[in-house]
Design goal:
The protein has 73 residues and is mostly helical. It is 59% helix and 0% strand. Residues 3-62 bind DNA.
Length: 73
């Protein structure tokens, strides 16, 4: 039975996304994003959205602003 809901990826998909986020690249280029999406069985839009949210979460945990700004701000 699938636990997949309209609200987001399954546990297995999140595992793939987390692995890529932590071990491969926090800022995947379009080609890498496409490969990660294919591996996780998600659309590129869903994958990109997940990475964006995950990056904001990571930046907050590191004590950084959730959005990228220049160092001079």
């Amino acid at each position: 039975m699938s636990t997949e809901t309209a609200s987001g990826p399954t546990e297995d998909q999140v595992e793939i996304l987390e692995y890529n986020f932590n071990k491969v690249n926090k800022h995947p280029d379009p080609t890498t994003l496409c490969l990660i999406a294919a591996e996780a069985g998600l659309s590129e839009e869903e994958t990109q959205k997940w990475f964006k949210q995950r990056l904001a979460q990571w930046r907050r945990s590191e004590g950084l602003p959730s959005e990228c700004r220049s160092v001079t701000d």
